[in-house]
Write a structure and sequence with these properties.
By secondary structure, this protein is an alpha+beta fold. The protein folds into 2 domains: about 130 residues, no CATH class; about 130 residues, no CATH class. It is about 15% helix and about 45% strand. The strands form 6 sheets. The protein has a 4-stranded antiparallel sheet with strand order 4-3-2-21. A 4-stranded antiparallel sheet has the order 5-6-7-8, with helices on one face. The longest helix is centred in the first third of the chain and has 18 residues.
Amino acid sequence: MGITKKLFILILLLIFLSNSGCILTNNAIEKEIDALEIESNTPLGYLYHSKFFYLDEVLDFDELLKNEKIKASFEDVFCVTDNNIWFLYSTEITGIGEKWHLATVTMTGKDFCLRYESIFCSSDDSDTSYRKSLESIDYSEMNGFYVNDKIILTDKNKLVEINVLSNEIIEYSYKNYKFLESTVYIDIQPQQLVFHGKEKKRIIDFTEASKMSKVFDQIAQFSKYKIYDGTYSMDSFFDKVQFCNGKYYIYGRILNWHGETHMVIFEYDFYNDCLSYILNLKTYDVASHCLFIVPINQMTVRNH
């Protein structure tokens, strides 16, 4: 092939790339995302499927239950206090409902301690099983959550409040319990979040988020890259907002060339309009339904 023909093909290739957007290679995205610097000092762990991650440690709850010779379904992790992880597992009682078991264990899987257990989901007006809230930021819609040093368990009929500091346990009627209300409604769109407060409305898109967070400004650069099917890496970026212990956690999706997902998570202070990058995780597929932030009691965090 002559030099002139090679040059002609090269020019055509450059024109094609300039019209089609940049290509985001797998190595490029992983290298750049892994280099992002954490912007928040809030100690946090995260739950991915049945595995809990905190600092450099991982605890698999399916394996833990197996080792404890407990035939049950792992359900949830609520918080960490005094280096104890508070978690829930359930056992089915045929013809009656479910028994929910609240227990604690250390990150190394030691010192297993059952803190509370009781039958739930046994009445006609209750939920039929424990389900981790995937979409709602309304506490009254959740079967279990942690807020203000308390774990609340409810099947929408029976409700139990467990204080993780004093170990005090109080049972309430679901209808009479006063839930901590979120005063914010959130509209989630692929490239924009709208937070509707009683007195304030805040819109977070790529431009506004880049002003609040240096890391988001770095991440926003990926929006110009195309993936294998011709769509862009961040076409459907905003995926979920988790309301946890009074804070909002924004989950974003970045796709590499093969369409594999990298989740990036930001902590958002609605009232001060402050956005901080806290975590990234390569999950390969859409993982927001099985990925959750878990609060760590700041008074009891180990020094590393």
